[in-house]
Amino acid sequence: MKENGVHVTQVRSRLIPTVVAVFVTALLGGVFAAVQGYEDILVPVLGVLGILSLLTPFVVPVVWAWALLMSRPCKLVLAGAALWLLTGLALMPTDVTWPLTTHVVTGLVAAMGLLGRWKPELILLLLVLVSLPLVFWTLETESLDEMFDEYKEQALQDRRDFLNAGTRSGDDDPTLAQEEQFLDDALLLVKQLLPGSMVLVQFIQSGLTFGLVWVLVRVLGLAAAFRRFPSFDRWRLPFAVIWLLAGAIALMIVQPGLWPEAGVNLALVVVSLLAVQGAAVQWRLSKASFPLLPRLFFMGLASVLFLPLVMLGLADQWLDFRKLNEVEPEGSA
């Protein structure tokens, strides 16, 4: 009897985190589903709902990562995730269920990566890949076109009002057509760079999510069981990104079709990541020469310029400024 009681207690302790994860996800889904169509009535609480929407991509993954870390074996948590999915599909709109399910999968992947002692770079990449389908699925190009058109019309109307306040008629001013063409070109560029920008946003969001999961691991006292993370000043990209950059440049010079746009967006992502590596190089090299505050100042200055960090990160792929190839990386343990 005593052994049966111990077994029941163990099952219950493993079940509770999964139940909490399912409850939190279903609660958030119920709130988002309930307010759909009533935004005009719920104006006083829209700020609270907005904050809740911003926190959801971080809260849900962390809760599910906690459930997986505390409820092993994984079958119990996977069953809970399946229960949430069936509940969401049966009771909630699709545009509520799929985003929350993506956050659930994000938390599970982060926890599985830690349990499997995967490289942090691989976990981060998987988190981004998990999130991207949802991002592009929820992207409404028609709404973006309407938003851009409204912005252009407002800008042109402000220009007409300014010209009409003077001596010239706004509609007859030749600069108005030039400004309209400039706005069209600028908005087209924004639309062309939107996919790459969204990928970068997902890298940032996935990095924050993974960081929160790692904080959770340390709070639970499980950090010693997982792969150690290299410090920021030792971080660098694999050399394969150089081939990605070369491929992006090749796509940019291909005509016609969508290949040039794909090349531009791929190059945007790669050079942004190289800029992060350049920032890591600058942080490492300035550590011996400057105290913390001047290092932060120079980091901010270089970030504004951006290109120096990109070139520094690119050169580091060959020159190895930090001599990382000569010592064993910290994260290899």
Helix and strand layout, with pairings?
Blueprint: H1 2-35, H2 46-70, H3 74-91, H4 94-115, H5 120-138, H6 141-164, H7 174-219, H8 240-252, H9 259-286, H10 292-305, H11 307-319
Helix pairs in contact: 1-2, 1-3, 1-4, 2-4, 2-7, 3-4, 4-5, 4-7, 5-7, 6-7, 7-9, 8-9, 9-10, 9-11
Describe the fold and architecture.
The protein is globular and about 75 Å long. α8 (240-252) runs antiparallel to α9. It has helices at residues 2-35, 46-70, 74-91, 94-115, 120-138, 141-164, 174-219, 240-252, 259-286, 292-305, 307-319. It has two domains: 2-138, no CATH class; 230-333, no CATH class. It has 333 residues and is mainly alpha-helical. The chain is built from eleven helices and no strands.
Profile the largest sheet.
none
* SS elements, strand count: 0
Average of per-residue pLDDT values = 79
Structural class: mainly alpha
Order of helices and strands: HHHHHHHHHHH
Q: State the domain count.
A: 2
Shape: globular
Total number of helices? 11
Helical residue percent band: over 70%
Radius of gyration: 25 Å
Oligomer: single chain
Strand percentage lies at: under 5%
- Low-confidence parts: 4-8, 328-333
State the end-to-end CA separation: 44 Å
